[in-house]
Design a protein that fits this description.
Pfam families: Sel1. By secondary structure, the protein is mainly alpha-helical. It is about 60% helix and about 0% strand.
Length: about 160
Amino acid sequence: MFEKLADPNGENHALSQVLFGLALRHGWGCPPDPERAVTYLSYAASNSAEVEAMALAAGMKKGGAAKGELVLAMYELANCFRNGWGIKKDAVAAKQYYETAANLGDTDAMNEVAWCYLEGFGCKKDKFKAAQFLRLAESKGSKTLGNTWIWKEKYNPK
């Protein structure tokens, strides 16, 4: 069913593209096909971004109905690049996708991009930036035990 709704030459439904992409990546109800999964996750990101751009152009201040699909597609593409699922591993691309999803409000992505900055995965190590993303995630309800260091004064924004 998701395959039919996800078809870019048919329904071209962004949420179905995300879900079908995940099903293909993990082999949920179908044979695993990680390369095809990346294709469908990319369709979802592209379609969602287009819907969001139209919503913003129409005067909506916070975007439209496709923001959730856009964020989820970005986060899942980051996971593909990080782990080499269906595509060559690319730390820089993974970090960029995580950061985009984090900037769109996804708390999981905030934690992942913070990890990238802490470890120097796809970027130069930057504990200050990591602390900022972890603080943001915590402010949105995603608290991680052992992260009290992020509240040290030296990590306060200037």
